[in-house]
Amino acid sequence: MKARVIRGVRPTRIELQKIRKRIVLSERGRELLQDKLDAMTGEMMRMKKEHAALARSVDDHVHTAYPALTRAGMSIGWRNLSAVAKTTDGMADIEMQTRNIMGRRVPDIVIPDKLRESLIPGYTLSGTTAYVDCAGTEFEKLTIALIRLAEAEGVMHSLESEIKKTRRRVNALENVLIPSLNATSEYIESYLEELEREDLFRRKRAKSVLAGGGKWGRG
Description:
Blueprint: H1 13-76, H2 78-87, E1 95-101, E2 104-110, H3 130-218
Antiparallel strand pairs: 1-2
């Protein structure tokens, strides 16, 4: 599709200089946005690999945690296990922060070293078995893996949104604004060249008329 000349632009030398400056700035802006787009696309590819690894980790922990829970329930009985679960310490606070990736804020979840507030179980050891502790540990690992997976999905969602927005801006500059500026520049240049040709023609004609008039005067 042929680029359109910007409407309302006066075909003067001053306007031509302004258009040329806008072309330089627009091309520089497009280069910077393209660099940003390339960097974010690379980060998205890295995050997809990380997300796949985290998804596999969650799957592995699920296949470990639930059998551990079954063994714990069978060892002390499901009613007793439910009572034990109610006496355990709650989770420590998980801090939700953000970090910057190419100007975009993305989730950054801070998980404490120990997910449970206390290292000591909130239940008495009498009447329980090692299976109970094992189940608790495995589900803690599963919880951490799920949090990391959710964090990765949040980062990917933010990056995807920024990539789409940046790509639209690059396309607008590359396919609309810059071609339009170039077309306008060419139009003004052509207009000014035509004026120069007309002016040169008038001068030559005037010179020719004056020269011819001088000869007629001497005759």
